[in-house]
Amino acid sequence: MVEMSRSFAQRVYELVRQVPYGRVVSYGGVAAMLGHPRAARGVGWALRNLPDDEPQVPWWRVINRNGEISIKGPFPGPTLQRELLEREGVRFDARGRVDWREYGWKGPEAPVDGTVVAP
DNA sequence: ACGGTGACACCAG
DNA sequence: TCTGGTGCCACCG
After folding, report:
1. Which strand B bases fall within 7 angstroms of a protein CB?
2. CA of residue A13 relative to chain centroid, distance
């Protein structure tokens, strides 16, 4: 097993499950939404060790701050992730990056644009 | 308790 | 913009 109670990893999975189809979020973004703005690496570790017991976790929608695929290794990792994202309509530029303005997910409680926050 | 690892982020230069 | 160095966090023998 990889977790016992509500481990950090478990919370990562729950949040990533909420990332909408065709949208992406950064490791640091996930960490921040969980209240741990400096735990980006922890998020990466959690997704790398995603157990088979955790279905419905769109791990491929999590990329690094530069809008790039951050998976290492030759085996079906980087390629598969990009494949899955493109299949959802996410487009990569010539440098292999995603535009945050267009596909970035602001979080489950993100305010609708046009909302006035303060004068 | 300790040191090492990793699908990260940030800050100079 | 890119690159290298540094900081941080969760987790594993």
Report:
1. 5-10
2. 10
Q: What is the structure's pLDDT at A78?
A: 81
List pLDDT tens digits, range A74-108.
Answer: 766 788 999 999 999 999 999 999 999 999 999 88
Which residues, other chains included, contact A46 with Cβ-Cβ below 8 Å and sequence gap of 6+?
A: A8, A9, A12, A13
**A29-68: burial string, b at 16+ Cβ within 10 Å, e else:** bbbbbbebeebbebbbebbeebeeebeebbbbbbbbeebe
Q: Measuring from the CA of residue A59 to each C1', which nucleotide is nearest?
A: B7
pLDDT tier at A6, thresholds 50, 70, 90? confident
